[in-house]
Amino acid sequence: MSGEQLGLPGMTQTYACRITFSENNSGGTWWLQQEHYDKLFAAGWHPGRTSYNGSVRGAHRIIVLDAIDEGVANTTAYNMAVLEWEKLTGENSDDPGCSCCGAPYQFYDWDTPILLIDWRGRNYEPGVEQATLLAMFEED
Question: Which pLDDT value is given to residue 127?
């Protein structure tokens, strides 16, 4: 329940959102190189799906932020992740690709944001370990 639903205008809560990126293969060639993935992983992205040969061809980012509800949290996290991805890779997330294979990059916000509340009902501080957050998404 959001702060608005509780009758507390403007009250925010802390959410963790997972945004997933997947790369498309175009004519047997991948769009991103290993150095792109190295930059993503150094910035806190986690390896995602793999290709037929075992190489990583996707990643996901968990973003912790304050928002008035989970919809605002997810939209904001999605935009933050895409902008960060573009800055790190130097690529355009809206690249249409080619007519035969389609867009080279897809971003998803499939997961419902997790409201970060501890057992006392207090919000966690925005420094929760990424591995802890990742495990929370894997449990759902």
Answer: 54
